[in-house]
Amino acid sequence: MDTNTLAVGGLEPLMSIDQLAEYLGIPVATIYDWRVDGKGPCAIRIGRHVKYAVHDVQEWVAQHREAAPGRPSAGEARAR
Question: Mind listing the pLDDT tens digit for each residue in 29-48?
Fold first, then answer.
């Protein structure tokens, strides 16, 4: 998925649960489990559909990036 393009009208593109699972390389069931457990990127509910803003997904992934050896991760650095 090209995360640099804008959707119709210049709005940020939204990903479906299937697209998010494919992007992350994990089962769709894991995304649903994360929602129940309060984990994973912030979602947007539109009627009965659940979508994810590309920016929120990118931010969530960046927060889970492991640190280089000897350096704090992004989450640990913010906690200090």
Answer: 999 999 999 999 999 999 99
CA distance 48 to 3: 24
- In whole angstroms, give the CA distance from residue 1 to residue 54: 10
CA-to-CA distance for 7 and 47, rounded, in angstroms?
A: 20
Rounded Cα–Cα distance for residues 30 and 19 (Å): 13
The answer to whether residues 28 and 18 touch, using CB atoms and an 8 Å cutoff, is: yes
pLDDT confidence of residue 75: 64
| Domains by residue range for the chain, with CATH | 11-70 (1.10.10.10)
Any idea what DSSP says for residue 66?
P
Q: The pTM is what?
A: 0.72
Residue 44 and residue 14 in contact, taking contact as beta carbons nearer than 8 Å: yes
Taking all residues of the chain, what is their mean pLDDT, rounded to a whole number? 86
